[in-house]
C-alpha cells in the first residue's frame, strides 16, 4: 500500500504543498485521537502539541481549531489562514505561498452522540502583492484551489484528497501512524436513487426544490419512475463521504426559515472544497443556478445553497430550477 508522499510526488505536486498537506494531516491525526477519546478527551489530554496541553477542557471544535491554526502557521509556507471558527483571518508568513481555509470540526453537534464528524480544508495560492492580514486575498473562486480534502473521523479515519488530478481516498493506519492509499480513483456513479436533505425544512424551500423532492418521494408511481432512499447524517462531511463511496445527491438548498439567513453552508470552508472533490470524482456541484466552483466570493464567511453529487441527478435537479426560471 502506498503512502501519501509518493502519490503526490507522482502527480507532480510542489514539495512545499506536499509538506503543507502532511502538516494538516498531522493535526488531523491528533484530532482523530482526541475525537476517539470521546468524553475522556478533556481529561486525558494531547499526544502532539505542548501548547494545547492543559487546555483540554475546551470543546473539541475549539481544540481542533487551535491545533490546526498552530501547526499550519508554523510551516512558514502559509501567508494566512481563515477558519470557520475565527471571525477574522490570521496572518502568517508574509512571504508564504499558500492560503488555507478550514472547518476544523464539521458536524460538531454529532460529537455529543458519538457520530460522524470531520475536518474539511482547502488550499489556495497566496497573491504575492497583498499584505498577510488582507482578507481580500481569500476572495478567489473555488476553481483556484490547489488542493482540497477532508478527514472523516468514523469507525476508521479516512482522508479524501484532490490536488486536481482526481479524487483519492486514504485510510489512517493507526499502527504506523500514516495515511495509506485505499482508493486510487474515486468515481461517482452517474445515476443514483439515494438523496440527502433535511426534510424538516421542506415547507421553507423554494418551489423548484419542493417540486424536485416531491417527485423523488412519489417513487415508482411518479415521473422519475423509481423508488428513492433517503439518508441524512447532519454532517456534510459524512454525507459527502457516502456519496463519494456509492453515489447520491446531497442538497442544502435556500430556505425562508430566517429571512436574514437563506443559506446554511459556508462557501470557503464547506462548499468549495467539497465541490472540488465531487467534480474531480466525476460529479457535479451547483447552487441551483450556477456552478459553485465559479462563484466569486465577496466575504470569507459567505454562505451558499449547495446541490451536489451524481451527475445525472444533479442535472435533473438543475432542470427543475431552470424550468422555474423560464416560466417566471
Ligand atoms: P455544525 O458543524 O455546526 O454541526 O453544522 C454542520 C452543517 O453545517 C453541515 O455539516 C450539515 O450538513 C448541516 O450543518 C446539518 O444541518 P441540519 O442542522 O439542518 O441538519
Explain this structure.
The N and C termini lie far apart (55 Å). The chain is 31% helix and 22% strand. The chain is α+β, with helices and mostly antiparallel strands and 328 residues long. Strand 9 (194-196), helix 5 and strand 10 form a beta-alpha-beta unit. The protein is built from eight helices and 15 strands. Helix 2 (15-36) runs antiparallel to helix 4 and helix 5 packs across helix 8 (311-327). The site of 1,6-di-O-phosphono-alpha-D-fructofuranose (AFP) has 11 residues, from loops.
Gyration radius over CA: 20 Å
Uncertain segments are: 43-57
The main pleated sheet reads as: 8 strands, mixed
Give the class from helix and strand content and strand pairing: alpha+beta
How much strand?
15-25%
Overview features:
alpha+beta, 5-stranded mixed β-sheet
State the gist of this model.
The protein is 31% helix and 22% strand.
Give the SSE map.
Elements: H1 4-10, H2 15-36, H3 41-44, H4 60-74, E1 78-83, E2 90-91, E3 98-106, E4 117-125, E5 147-153, E6 157-162, E7 167-173, E8 178-183, E9 194-196, H5 207-217, E10 229-230, H6 236-246, E11 249-252, E12 265-266, H7 267-280, E13 284-286, E14 303-304, E15 306-309, H8 311-327
Parallel strand pairs: 1-3, 9-10, 9-11
Antiparallel strand pairs: 1-2, 3-4, 4-5, 5-6, 6-7, 7-8, 11-15, 12-14, 13-15
Bound molecules: 1,6-di-O-phosphono-alpha-D-fructofuranose.
